[in-house]
Specification:
Elements lengths: L2 H5 L9 E6 L4 E5 L2 E5 L5 E7 L5 E9 L4 E5 L2 E4 L10 H13 L1 E2 L2 E9 L8 E8 L2 E2 L12 E6 L3 H10 L3 E2 L2 H12 L2
Parallel strand pairs: 4-10, 6-13
Antiparallel strand pairs: 1-2, 2-3, 4-7, 5-6, 5-12, 8-11, 9-10
Length: 188
């Protein structure tokens, strides 16, 4: 965590909310009988829906400590998680995260929809962003030791590919299926 992140003021807590624990990246809260978490340095999570010119969905693979294994996911990131990006909107964040994680620079970004990330666990909002006009500018892999593997998967074989990844022991994030729905809807 950078010094800028540590010194950034945290979002205030509502008076009817009890702070149970304050971590470096998460705050555990209780309102009435419900416990939930928030990211105090964030305005949401952005998920990137991006296709290459060859009609491949851009995905990332990385180790996720909470599930103790590697996952297949959409390129994504926390919006406004550092002082440098505090005022960044979802589309700007999506373009930045896509390039950091995958090496693809997008020409344009458009918000598809928003949804609760996990309504029973967090107040966080997920922003699904469609990015178009991809140009490969570097190999990808993330920043700060993220160890990201980039996968460009042909849409006409993506179901089998995802099944094979799951069969190999990787977790497949359900938001990929939402992205496939958005792509199918776009093509109608």
């Amino acid at each position: 965590m950078s010094e800028q992140q540590v010194k950034r003021p945290r979002k205030p807590v509502d008076p009817d909310v009890i702070v149970l624990h304050e971590g470096e990246f998460l705050r555990l809260l209780r309102r009435a009988h419900w416990e939930y978490v928030v990211r105090p340095h964030s305005s949401g999570a952005g998920f990137v829906v991006a296709l290459t010119d060859a009609d491949e969905l851009v995905l990332v693979e990385q180790y996720r400590l909470p599930v103790r294994g590697r996952t297949i996911e959409l390129p994504a990131g926390i919006i406004g998680d550092s002082e440098a990006f505090a005022d960044e909107d979802a589309c700007t964040s999506a373009l930045r995260e896509l390039e950091e994680e995958t090496g693809f620079r997008g020409a344009e970004a458009q918000l598809i929809t928003t949804a609760p990330t996990a309504a029973g666990l967090t107040a966080e909002t997920s922003y699904f962003v469609r990015v178009r006009g991809l140009t490969r500018v570097h190999a990808g892999g993330g920043v700060d030791g993220e160890d990201i593997t980039v996968h460009c998967v042909a849409l006409d074989g993506i179901d089998d590919w995802l099944d094979a990844q799951r069969g190999a022991g990787l977790a497949v994030d359900a938001r990929i299926y939402a992205a496939l729905h958005f792509i199918a809807r776009e093509r109608r």
